[in-house]
Amino acid sequence: MSGMLIDTTPVDKPTHKIGHLDPDTEYEISVLLTRPLEGGTGSPGPPLRAKTKCADPMHGPRRLEVIDSQSKQVTVRWEPFGYNVTRCHSYNLTVQYRYRPAGAASRKPVKEEVREEVVYDTLSAVPQHIVRNLPPFTNVSLRLVLSNPEGRKESEELLVLTDEDVPGAVPVDSILGSSYEQQISLSWREPLQTYGLIRQYEISYKALSSFDTEFDLSNQSGKVFKPANETSHVFTGLYPGSTYSFTIRASTIKGFGPPVITQFTTKISAPLMPAYDQESPLNQTDSTVTVLLKPAQSRGAPVSKYQVVVEEERPRRQRRGTAEILRCYPVPIHFQNATLLNSQYYFSAELPMSELRAPMPFCVGDNRTYSGYWNAPLLPHKSYGIYYQAVSTANGETKIDCVRVATKGAATRKPEPEQEKQSDHTVKIAGSIAGVLLFIIIFLGVILLMKKRRRNYHSYTYYLKLAKKRKETLSSRQEMTLMVNSSQHTTTVDTHTHTLNGRTVSSPSSFTLKTNTISTSVPNSYYPDPFVPTAILDDSHTMTSETSSLVQSHYKQRESEREALPYQTGQLHPAIRVADLLQHITQMKCAEGYGFKEEYESFFEGQSAPWDSAKKDENRMKNRYGNIIAYDHSRVRLQPQDGEGGSDYINANYIDGYHRPNHYVATQGPMQETVYDFWRMIWQENTAAIVMVTNLVEVGRVKCCKYWPDDTEIYGDMKVTLIETQLLSEYVIRTFAVEKRGVAEIREIRQFHFTGWPDHGVPLHATGLLGFIRRVKAKTPPTAGPTAVHCSAGAGRTGCFIVIDIMLDMAEREGVVDIYNCVRELRARRVNMVQTEEQYVFIHDAILEACLCGDTAIPANQLRSVYYEMNRLDPQTNSSQIKEEFRTLNMVTPTLRVEDCSIALLPRNHEKNRCMDVLPPDRCLPFLITIDGESSNYINAALMDSYKQPSAFIVTQHPLPNTVKDFWRLVLDYHCTSIVMLNDVDPAQLCPQYWPENGLHRLGSLQVEFVSADLEEDVISRIFRIYNTARPQDGYRMVQQFQFLGWPMYRDTPVSKRSFLKLVHQVDKWQEEYDGGEGRTVVHCLNGGGRSGVFCSISIVCEMLRQQRCVDVFHAVKTLRNNKPNMVDLLEQYKFCYEVALEYLNSA
Questions:
Q1: Angstrom distances, CA of residue 160 to CA of 60, 71, 593, 839
Q2: Which molecular-function annotation in GO is an example for this chain (predicted)?
Q3: Which tens digit of pLDDT belongs to each residue from 996-1031?
Q4: What would the pLDDT profile of 102-112 be if each residue is shown by its tens digit?
Q5: What is the DSSP string of 9-44?
């Protein structure tokens, strides 16, 4: 740069300041002397060279933008600049960027990475720079910094998300497995480096080896896919005693990451004993019994030995009704020790497997010794049962199965051979005559019963009049009470029983049903739902039953009452009175000639009407399954789209409701290709409720595509926006705003998504589904169009929902149900509605439960008056509605059978149970995961649902001295954040203090550290820090224990309703604050029963009040009792739940 600047400013001193110079520029300065007037100008003096300093940059780089983003690098571009911006010829341009590496999975704070690079491309017309070595799928903050010796200026910050990449490996130490005999439950965590949104997991498995060499493992392999939100899977159909290899890898949109491999071994099964049809010995004397011993079939491990057990049958043993699991004998007792130990059985022989390769006779009582066991002669005057059991041992496990092979009766005197033959002949003749007479009696009884039922069918008109007259004077709760009373008072059961959980349990072998006309012995194994009482209503109480309620007020019509013709019932399958429903179901489950199996098989299977439209080429791809498609005569016809052939087709059929034509649309779960058609149908039919009875993925298979948005989505000319999501333990309610292009209307549509249907079979209990159906009814406007119901195919579960809904309406209006003809009518509209016999039986059980229990929900604004009325004593019966409701609850509470609690009853777990009659069922056990030298993963605890969250509560007993470590393992393994203690520390009752008051408490690899304590009214709250030294990468977990002091041991209920309610609020508040409501709550009292049930019930009821503004104590307790029958086991506790609900309303 060159130029000249002349400053003619006169100066009168030897210094002068020159301004307006350019930064970072060298100047040559000369001084000229000038005299005024005519003196002239002299020559310049010697030149002076000087350079100005740099100035602060004018501004930072502008128009910074990303022109390319990849998974590990980002290219940025900016507006070129020159000296007028830098104001210095020597400057630096750098890019600063920062990001937070992936590490959220560990829940530890991750330090932010800050880096800086020099930019060399500064002079080109299109300057750009590539930032490399970035982590994939990470938010990166970038800015350019222009600096010179005098200052710096920054560009605006630019945020950019790097592209996705394949994920890292699933952490090996996060893979946890629980092994069972024929299944392995696997869980894992997402990769620490997800590098994107995890789309799915692929889990491959393959059998490697088995303890049982007879197993063919070639077909034991497979592959399942799980969506990103599911990090667990239960592999079923596995072989016992077999080692499986599992390979897990995660995928993003870029593909699968590296695999990780682990191995687990299934538990061995007990050997399968051979069948002994009759307990008849080969030979018998006064002191010996000769039996035929047959080899058992191994299952997962070879049979190691066989044992012969002799059990003395004393008179009190005649009522024995225990299941086969208790007829096995894991503890060997010698004959010499049997009397000393007061044992009724002893081992008479133990035979190695090598001696029993083929059937062989064995003489019990031959006075010889087998493997150290004396086979003592039998005493003639005693009766014995001879048992034969096989033992398998492998991998530290021992499994036993046994069978009764003979019975020896007591001998009064030794008969002569001729007399013996004659007696035997007499017995045969008497038995034949008795058999013929029994057949005649049964045949006559059946004829009388059929006549009686036909007579009852013709008397429905009388029954309806009587019921109507009765309803004018009875409340809905009284009606329910009358029905339950009539069905209970008319029940007579004669059965061999044993007790579990304080309740009588029917023997699985046989029992007798008695009425005034017929007596039949039937097997109990035909009862899939244990709550159905095993009894038949007595004829003498028919009139009492007629006055009973049908179902409760919630099933009343959702539109104005209208007179209509009675529901048309069939000739061969007449409708069944609600009062007779219990008797009918009991008979159908027990029938040997014609029962549910035969009735279901009488339905027409497969296509029964034309479906030409569905078969057209343009429509074939719109059907999820080729055999479940829409009939032409009842299909929903969509408004055709211009120029699109087949655009009027959707796999959906109209179904009539109860006196409501086309009240339902039964359809398949939408596929990706049919989502737009589905929403077209919803709009066209003016549907306000969508009922979804499937999950998106079940058993690794896609059952339905996700046809709704998480925010807003456009489907063709339809716009669907998610407004609200309400999560409950067994279902989800989603509310959408739906708009159609060109239509000035916004419709509110609700989706009711039932998530509690298991992958296989039907729900164990109908309680949840019935509550779901009531919610759908209550939330659906009466003026809306058809309710859309779908599962995957739109036939099985869809049919169940529709039939139950129709039949409950019918029961309310007519006092009868006609399930058979309802299913038949549905199948005339859509193929194969109600797809299995199991679903058909479940429908009957669900309707029976609804009729027995009724609708027990009470609006919050009516609770005070209704509860007052419920407690009012009837002077005639000396009872009240609340007592009858609790009695009903006891009646419909499922009874736990011995086989339901097989794990708790294992010999190695006996010492871990405080009471052998308060045991958790296998299906809701929380198996311990943390390993610390423990061979058993059992703890006496049960998982329970809260109002909003499945398995939110873990109900358990106060830890025994030998289960304190198990208790803390439970807290750590199941991410528990709260412990509620409802009993006192009492060493006399083996209730130790299981926590440290200060300092550290070491339990093997577990450390429990006391943090703080606080006392507020009746609650001591303590905070602990739990840490597993064997897994330091898991970090620690904070747990707060709430010890409630306001419930003395001598009281049935707490002293103060207010303080107990405060306890519930304190727990809720801690749960929300610490873990966002995701952590579980451990609730314990002495035995994990009544008191724990009160806390869980009140917690559910309070949440119900917040969400629905209604109270349903009956439903809350029934839901808990489905898993643990002793929850809320006293009437006073049941009343207390209502009273705390009133306290909640007062405090609110």
A1: 19, 11, 73, 53
A2: protein tyrosine phosphatase activity
A3: 888 888 888 889 999 888 888 889 899 999 988 888
A4: 644 444 556 78
A5: ---SSS-----SPPTT-EEEE----EETGGGEE---
> Nearest 10 degrees: CA dihedral of 313, 314, 320, 323?
-30
Main-chain dihedrals φ then ψ at residue 509, nearest 5 degrees: -80, -60
Strand 1006-1016 relative to strand 1000-1003, pairing: antiparallel
Number of CB atoms found within 10 A of residue 405's CB: 26
DSSP string across 590-606: H-SSSSHHHHHHTSPPS
Give yes or no for a contact between 27 and 21, defined as CB atoms under 8 angstroms apart. yes
- Yes or no: say if 630 and 652 are a contact pair by the CB < 8 Å rule: yes
Q: Which superfamily does CATH assign the domain made up of 584-855 to?
A: Protein tyrosine phosphatase superfamily (3.90.190.10)
| Per-residue pLDDT tens digits for 612-653 | 999 999 999 999 999 999 999 999 999 998 877 788 999 999
Instruction: Please compute Rg for the chain using Cα positions.
Output: 40
Place of tokens 């098989």: 601
- CATH 2.60.40.10: does it fit domain 65-162? yes
Instruction: State the CATH architecture for 891-1147.
Output: Alpha-Beta Complex (3.90)
* Burial (Cβ within 10 Å: 0-12, 13-18, ≥19) of residue 904: buried
1085 belongs to the catalytic site: yes
Q: Which of 791, 822, 853, 924 is catalytic?
A: 791
- Establish whether 976 is a catalytic residue: no
The values of phi and psi at residue 540, to 5°, are -65, -10
Q: Report how far residue 1028's alpha carbon sits from residue 1002's, in angstroms, rounded to the nearest whole number.
A: 10
Q: What is the fold, at CATH topology level, of the domain defined by 172-265?
A: Immunoglobulin-like (2.60.40)
φ/ψ (deg, to 5) at 931: -105, 130
Beta partners for residue 713, in sequence order: 720
pTM (predicted TM-score): 0.55
Using an 8 Å Cβ cutoff, are 695 and 230 in contact? no
Lowest mean pLDDT among 282-291, 420-429, 681-690, 978-987: 420-429
Residue ranges, CATH 2.60.40.10, the chain: 65-162, 172-265
The catalytic residue among 590, 851, 1085, 1096 is 1085
Q: Are 765 and 852 within 8 A, CB to CB?
A: no
283-314+331-408 — its CATH code? 2.60.40
> Residue 444: left (phi > 0), alpha (psi -120 to 50), or beta?
alpha
